[in-house]
Amino acid sequence: MKIDAIHMREIQMPLVQPFQTSFGVTTGRRILLIEIEAEGLTGWGECVAGEHPYYSDEMIDTAWIIVKSELAPRLMKEPVENGGACPNLFKRVRGHRMAKASLENAVWDLEAQMKKAALADLLGGEREVIACGVSIGIQPTMEEQMEKIETALAAGYQRIKLKCQPGWDVTMFEAARKRWPDMVMSCDANSAYRIKDMEHLETFDEFKMLMIEQPLWYDDFYFHSMLQKRLATAICLDESIRNRRDALAAIDMQSCRIINVKVGRVGGFSEAVAIHNAAAERGIPVWCGGMLETGIGRAHNIALSSLPNFSLPGDVSASKRYWKEDIIEPEVTVSTKGEIAVPTTPGRGFEVRRDLIEKLTIRKETIGAGVRG
Ligand code: OSB
Ligand code: MG
Q: Roughly what angle, to the nearest 10 degrees, separates helices 269-281 and 244-252?
């Protein structure tokens, strides 16, 4: 496909509720959106980098400069075959995986439209519906924490993930478990614990959680492997897994028994599918993580989650949990069974609300001439 223009824009959107993790509170998002014009069609991509480099070392402002000065020019140079050709075009640039993913995913979005295929089918998806969980942020009080869980269970979500940190863990797990003895429960520490906390982490076993996500350092395999030997509960790695090789290393070292795949964190759909496949071959289930995405990133997450080894409920939840008004149509809804239907129409399966996006835009830049003007 011949790319006519790449439009970058920053939109700002308040979250309907603050989201607190061990690395900070998010009340609103600054989001880099990518729009690629090619052959009369428009592909969209969303960069999942946050406002600060707290979850990962990327942030929206680094992604902006990398897309503009390094990646977009490489993509514009000559016609690109398809989404799968992007990693090779970008390989001179080290790191900056969220920036890379925002472009690569927009190319996949375009490719699906050109082939008149559902994005899910193009990626190798097989599911008609995906199983949904929620990630519940750290709440100011125990009462509010229990209310959030109650609301999510009433809505049908199949797995409740509780954000935790030292001082906000076992007491909260105990209260939740006591009230809901059978719920599928997990926790996510976002790297808040250290080796000195080993014995404390062992006490998490009694709550019979599906998994403990990223308890230790964001870049570690070795100490997670030591910890996994001492835990009955499965460790799930999120931050540590940057690519397929990391997934292979983590599986081989037994640093985890489950992997959270975030398409932005690993640099795009190509690498996400590669991790999915490598994990499947080794009997390791994966699930699709979330980054408080708008409907564009959410639509892409739904397509990815339709692959067969995405066999545990993901953090892909309804639009209304995040936004008063989402930027896609229809917005993402979750059934009372806790499922999202995978679109079967060509492309991403959700229309992009350009007028609303225009209103939310605070800066815009275009690489290439474009044909739309
Ligand atoms: O660790 O999974 C995480 C949000 C931002 C950064 C990191 C994480 C999260 C979530 C929210 O847990 C998932 C979502 O609902 O999008
Ligand atoms: Mg996580």
A: 20
Strands (E), 201-313: 211-213, 235-237, 258-261, 286-288
pLDDT of residue 369: 84
Q: Which residues contact 238 (CB under 8 A, 6 or more apart)?
A: 188, 190, 213, 214, 260, 262, 265, 289
Q: What is the dihedral of CA 127, 108, 317, 193, to 10 degrees?
A: 110
- Check pocket membership of 238 for ligand 1, CB cut-off 6 A: yes
The pLDDT assigned to 290 comes to: 98
- Using CA atoms, how far residue 272 sits from 2, 80, 260, 285, in Å, is 25, 20, 10, 13
215 lines ligand 1 (CB under 6 A): no
pTM of the model: 0.97
- CA of residue 260 to ligand 2 center, whole Å: 7
How many whole angstroms from its chain centre is CA 279? 17
Specify the amino acid at residue 98.
M
Cα 367 to ligand 2 centre (Å): 33
Residue 95 burial by CB count (10 A; 0-12/13-18/19+): exposed, middle or buried?
A: middle
Contact 294, 31 (CB under 8 A): yes
For ligand 1, say whether the CB of 314 is within 6 Å of any of its atoms: no
The sign one gets for the Cα dihedral 18, 287, 212, 275 is negative
Tokens 């680094």 label which residue? Answer: 62
Q: Are 65 and 363 in contact (CB under 8 A)?
A: no
- 293 CA closest ligand 1 atom index: 16
- At residue 352, φ and ψ (nearest 5 deg) are -95, 130
For residues 229 and 202, the answer to whether their CB atoms sit within 8 Å is no
pLDDT reported for residue 373: 54
State the DSSP code for 207.
G
DSSP E strand stretches across 269-360: 286-288, 328-329, 339-341, 351-352
What's at 29, amino acid-wise? R
Q: Quote the tokens at residue 64.
A: 């902006």
As annotated, the active-site residues are 163, 262
Which residues of the chain are modeled with pLDDT < 50? none
